[in-house]
Structure formats: structure tokens, C-alpha cells
Amino acid sequence: MNLHDLLTKHNQKKGPLRVGLIGAGKFGSMYLAQARSTPGVHLAAIADLVAARAIDALRRTGWREGQGAAASLPDALAKGTTFITDDAPAMIASPGIDVIIDATGNPFAGIAHVLACCRHKKNIIMVNVEADALAGPLLARRASEAGIVYSLAYGDQPALICEMVDWARTCGFTVVAAGKGTKYLPIYHRSTPDTVWRHYGFTEEQLAKGDFNAKMFNSFLDGTKSAIEMASVSNATGLLPPSNGLRFPPCGADDLPRILKPRTAGGFLDNAGQVEVVSSLERDGRPVYRDLRWGVFVTLTTENSYSARCFREYGVVTDDSGRYTALYRPAHLIGLELGISVASVALRGESTGAARDFIGDVAATAKRDLAPGDILDGEGGFTVYGTLLPARKSVVSGSLPIGLAHGVRIVRPVAAGKTVRWDDVFCEGQEEAVKFRREMETVFKKEWSIPLP
Fold first, then answer.
1. Which residues pair with 150 in a beta bridge?
2. 414 in the Ramachandran plot: left (φ > 0), alpha (ψ -120 to 50) or beta?
3. Which among 176, 177, 171, 198 has a CA at the least distance from the CA of 187?
4. Which of the listed residues 62, 180, 202, 381 has the most CB atoms within 10 Å of its CB?
5. In whole angstroms, what is the distance from residue 338 CA to residue 92 CA?
6. In the chain, pLDDT over 70 holds for what percent of residues?
7. Three-class DSSP category at 326
8. 19: helix, strand or coil
9. Alpha carbon 285 to chain centroid distance?
């Protein structure tokens, strides 16, 4: 509740927090828009593979002309300007920066950036939920061992969900389910970058004016991003994944306590204490009333009759029993809210959500029949989508994580709708990420007391 006060006092006594941003895409640009107007924050450096993209991001988000013209990072730190570079590792290694933000969305780069932050003692905020879903449980451990903070990004839905779960548990409620809303129909699992705009209903004029990435938007539509985000939530909160993938029940805000409860209580869930994503569309395509397409939610219950009576007295929507209720947030502001993580990590030493166990995993699933020689193109592409599974089930069955389904070659046929497994592919050119992921599987197999091969 006092982050702004802490930020102000730190600025007065020690100067501004110095931030290094990796990736000047949409999320990074949204953070830039707010960082420029946040007293006590100095965006010291932006690392992007294309320097011109970072300069353009500054221009589009209202920064003054020449802000990104510092000759070096020490120069930027001394003058309060911003250094633009294409060398993220060098930026991480440089002294003087308090917090690193990884907004790349690249799981291979994300793993490398976290390990570099561990070596150089830099706190890191992972907008890169793709890397977190792939290897977050072990990355968070490495960060803790190194004495740095590893954090999910506030403003992105996983961190907001973690906050709601923490609120409910701290109030003494039992968390029944937590998740987010999205636009979903079963046919979307087959969507590709060629079909995505038709499903969204965007016009050519809208696309020409916006900074839209077809592959990224398709990862939201085909269910992959939902699976990735819910894996992160599961690993951070201990809530379980569904046994066979997210089911995306159509559900509006008023129906959350009725639908997002266990089957044994008349609801939709496999079990209490689970993650799920609700659809803003009925299965016939009609819009859900008071949908949560952009929102997040938590459903909770109480065994205390007095508390249940208070639900009714204060106008809280419940199920018929009066004991299940829900709170929700109808929207999230993505990078515009990232400053909460920056302040929390740097000033309190607290994450805004981080993996604490390996509970959920995201397996690559074939969008079409895959034949030997086919090359997988990862999240939002033409070949695979992500399915959320319990981590033990995914690891023991040898499922290929969606985060590694980039540029790998199919060596055995995989039918549409089936899980792609390690034995079905030949991985090349991503050895470090594969090595780290395999190490994580070995570590947790031992903790699960599962015999190693």
C-alpha cells in the first residue's frame, strides 16, 4: 500500500531506481509510456536486437527527442538519459542498474538472461512468461540461491491472479479456482497466423495503424498463451492444472461462483484448488453476458456460516448454497502497470509472483498431422499449440514443452491433436535451453520420488 511513498523517499535519499529493459516490443513500449512519468525511476538502458526499434519505441511513447542518444551506459547513468544497445548480456553485466526487465517473449533468451542476472546480482522481472512456463521453477531457485529477486510482471494476468489468490488466502478463505478470461472456441486450436485476424475481426485499416504481430496474437487465440500463463500461476500458487488441459467453460462474472467450483459441489472443475480459463463466447459463438475476456478472477469458499451470511448482507454474488463466491477484476493494463513490480522488487525485495514448485507444464500439441522433416514453429504458429498438463504427467510421459517447440525437426509422425514428445523431434541450435530444462526435470523427478531412466 505504500510503494509510492517508498519510491519517493528512495528518490530523495539515494536517487532514482535505475532500470534496464530488454525488448522494446508492445509490452516494453507500454512500460516506457509510464516510466517517463514516474518520479523516482530512471530507465537507464534499453537492449533490443534492433536498436532502431528501441528508438522508435521511445518516440511513440512520448519521450523527448534524443533521449536514447547516450554514448554509453555510464554516460546515461550520469546524465539521466537512456542508453540504447543490442547487447543485453553486457547491459546486465554493467554496474549501476538495480532491476532488469526481460520483455522479449523468447524462452531461450529468458533463461540466459536470468542466469546472467544470477551471476551479476541483478534483480529480474520476467515479462517473459514463456521462459517462466518452460523453466521458471528452477530459474526461481537459482535466483534465490544467488540472492536476487525473480518476479512475474505486474500488469500481466499471472501476477494479478497471484495477488488475488494471496489476498483470499490471507483473509482466511479457501481458494477454489483462479484464472482469467479469454476469447475461446474449440476451433481456435487450429488457428494459424493466416487465419487469426479473421477470428479477431480486425480490418485491414486497423492492422495498418497498429503494432500487431500475427504470431503473437495467434498464441492468445489458439489457447497457447492461456496454457502458458496458467502454468505460471499454478507453479506460483500451488493451484492444480486440470488433468487433461484447460476446458475454457463459457462463464460471465456473475456465474463464477456457480460454475468455477468442483463437480462434487455442482460445478465444472475436476477438483477444488485449480486454475482455469473462462471463455467470453458460448460454444455456438454468442457472446457471454458480462464476460471476463480481459479480466482475472478468484473463486473462494468459506465453512463459516457467519462469513457466508456476511456475503449475503454485503451484496456479494454467490452460488445457491451461499458459501461459494468470487471476486474479479474486469481488465488488466499490461505494461502500463509494470511499475508495481519494479518498485516492489527493488524497494521491498518482494516479487509480484514467482514459481515455488513445478506443478503445471505446457506440452506441444499438433495442430495438424506432422510428418518427418516438418519444422515446428512454436507458440502461435502453424504447427503446434500448447496444452496445460500436470507437470508430473507431462514429464513422465516425455512431452515436449511448448517453449522448446521452436525450429526443431519432426522425426516421427504425430497425428493432429496428439502430444509431441521428445522422441518425436530432433533438437538443434538450442542446446543450453534444452540442457537447463532437462536439468529441471531431473531435479523435480528426484523430489517427486520418480525413478530416473
1. 124
2. beta
3. 198
4. 180
5. 19
6. 98
7. strand
8. strand
9. 27
Give the length of the chain.
Answer: 453
C-alpha closest to that of 299 among 321, 320, 279, 319: 319
CA–CA distance, 100 with 81 (Å, rounded to integer)? 17
> Would you state the cell numbers that stand for residue 427, as one nine-digit string?
533438437
In this predicted model, what pLDDT tens digit does every residue of 359-399 receive, in sequence order? 999 999 999 999 999 999 999 999 999 999 999 999 999 99
3-state helix, strand, coil in the chain (%, to 5): 40, 20, 35
Q: DSSP strand E in 86-193: where?
A: 99-102, 123-126, 150-152, 174-182
In order, the DSSP letters of 215-239 are HHHHHHHTSHHHHHHHHHHHHHH-P
Distance CA 10, CA 40 (A): 7
Q: Which of 191-205, 250-264, 351-365 has the lowest mean pLDDT?
A: 191-205
Sketch out the chain's domains with CATH numbers. Answer: 3-156+336-348 (3.40.50.720), 158-184+223-331 (no CATH), 360-447 (3.90.1210.10)
Distance CA 377, CA 224 (A): 13
Cα–Cα distance for residue pair 329/430, rounded to 1 Å = 38
